[in-house]
Design goal:
The structure is a homodimer.
Chain A: H1 4-9, H2 30-36, H3 41-45, H4 48-62, E1 67-68, E2 84-87, E3 91-94, H5 112-115, H6 117-130, E4 136-141, H7 143-151, H8 160-168, H9 170-193, E5 198-202, H10 211-217, H11 219-228, E6 235-239, H12 246-249, E7 256-259, H13 266-271, E8 277-282, H14 291-305, E9 311-315, H15 325-340
């Protein structure tokens, strides 16, 4: 197995900088559209055969050093009683939002192995089709981001309903965080049991919170997730636009902090005193442009991170739908070439 | 005239902490809906009589220490050839977006005093109706934010089209920034000529950029705006979610940095070595809640800023439509009471 990704997560020496892309098995790929056919996004995610085909073909096509489970972060909420419909342009939208503390009474705890069987079957099939050539990363949404999907009901700029609920119903907010972090933990542990080699928690929207609110109302639960996970599997924390929270992320028992283009990536090493690896952070707009602009941006990023142990090349956020797959292949080759020379 | 706001901007001693609210003359006010009647938002902004009524009644109603010109930041683009329609929920939407460098050829430079006469008439009438009791703040969008309205065409989470244009068409981007910063500068200078006592530049969305992109592609133009404005009028720079850019904002010739709840407000004084005043940064969700939650949050913020010279109380962003005006009145009274005691 190509272990460069796992080694980099644990800040070991590597013979080249590992690369993968968030949302690498996405709709920008011609064979994604082929495999998906007339299925909805959720139907696709629930079909282990298609999922494993997609995951393995993506790795072969791009030449990346890691695969990631194909799923959607809201699916963990379905067996708990919150259903979503995927809408064009806006992504998943909750059929019914949480608006009052009473709505929390309807939430049902459940056993992920029983209710999300398609995820684990997809993991097993993906590993087979990958022929264990690269590590497979399991993932879950983080507690704040999942709460946003339940209360605001969909992706938006400010998550005002969620932040309002958080301030207005302090006790119930903590009850919700306990519920969500417990579900996330069980879901992640089960993924490890079925064979994933690393875990990433996408608490993508926690950057909407002030330092104080993050520290008091979200961090204790995220912290508990990370400390309760097995230590032999590297763990990654991802959050968008969150420079102001970086010092708190350093306190999580995560091995890697994945940051977007707005956070200076070298701050991960600086703030953590070299205790964490860094993942990121090319602006996803760049691979939609390609050419000299892209090559220069990649080289500039490689210069910025040169000499730091524990680095995984990635975008600052997911691959955009209008990306030409050839551009990602060019990036993988360039990163491998440029960093192989340095050993 | 109540000079507490101007004095605080210039970091002079004040007998109470001044308070005003971004978007204080907004649709959460019953008399806003009354004055607006069946007019569109733009029709309202272009009616000096209504505007001045709104501006002055807001000050009387809330008891704030400053008034702000009532307008919309996209209106500066209209005489340049970019028209907008206000849509429910999304705000102004460009009728036709800039998609290629050639589209810039259609942009027309113009004299704000001639083409935006309604703004200056509104300023004169507002000052009269306010009876010069409090300072009136003039404003403009910043160059990046105006470019977003032209290229992405409307408010969204990521401004991908704008960032793509910026990277793809380097030369034309700079041409656009020159055009916009020149228009902004002329517009702001004209507002001073007609009597405003302070200026605020809303480059609200520049926080979407990486440090490097902001520094190379936006900052030179913003810097030029601030250094070219008269020094006897205090100047405020506002940007959302932009902790990572704060050190650059400190280099602008602005007197005040207005930050949102995600930036630790004390960093303004720390990073600027006490050279700038700070404005902000209560989470706008808080006044939609009221009660103990609100009182505690306001007191906590006042404790955080206590002892710093050069502080203006404000929200981290505009007043939300679902805010009860009584809550803002309570905040004004509380801030005045709590800070008056300290002298």
């Amino acid at each position: 197995m190509n272990t460069s990704f796992i080694d980099a997560c644990f800040r070991k020496e590597v013979d080249h900088t590992p690369v993968w892309f968030m949302r690498q098995a996405g709709r920008y790929l011609p064979f994604y559209r082929e495999i998906k056919g007339s299925k909805s996004v959720f139907e696709l995610a629930k079909d282990p055969e298609s999922v494993s085909e997609l995951v393995s073909r993506t790795v072969m096509e791009l030449g990346v050093d890691a695969a990631i489970v194909y799923s959607d972060i809201v699916l963990i909420l379905e067996p708990a009683g919150i259903n979503f419909t995927v809408k064009e342009h806006s992504g998943p939208v909750a059929d019914k939002m949480i608006t009052s503390p009473e709505d929390l009474d309807g939430l049902a705890s459940y056993n992920p192995e029983e209710e999300l069987g398609y995820v684990f079957e997809g993991i097993e099939l993906s590993l087979e089709k990958l022929n264990y050539s690269v590590p497979l990363i399991g993932f879950s949404g983080g507690p704040f981001t999942l709460a946003c999907y339940m209360i605001d009901g969909m992706k938006n700029r400010t998550m005002e309903k969620t932040r309002r609920f958080m301030h207005l119903y302090n006790k119930e907010w903590h009850r919700l965080m306990v519920f969500l972090s417990d579900m996330v933990l069980r879901f992640l542990k089960a993924q490890v049991k079925y064979g994933v080699s690393a875990l990433q928690v996408f608490d993508s929207w926690a950057g909407l919170l002030s330092k104080q609110d993050y520290k008091e109302k979200v961090m204790p639960y995220t912290k508990n997730i990370f400390t309760s996970l097995p230590s032999n599997v590297p763990k990654i924390h991802f959050c968008e636009n969150s420079s102001h929270l970086l010092e708190y992320f350093c306190e999580l028992d995560a091995d890697v902090l994945s940051v977007d283009w707005r956070t200076d990536i070298s701050l991960v090493w600086e703030y953590s005193k070299q205790a964490k690896a860094a993942q990121g952070n090319l602006d996803p707009v760049i691979p939609t442009i390609g050419g000299e602009v892209m090559l220069n941006a990649v080289k500039r990023l490689l210069r910025d991170v040169a000499g730091h142990r524990g680095y995984i090349f990635n975008l600052g956020h997911g691959v955009l739908p209008e990306t030409d797959p050839e551009n990602l292949k060019t990036i993988v080759k360039l990163v491998h070439e440029q960093t192989r020379r340095r050993i």
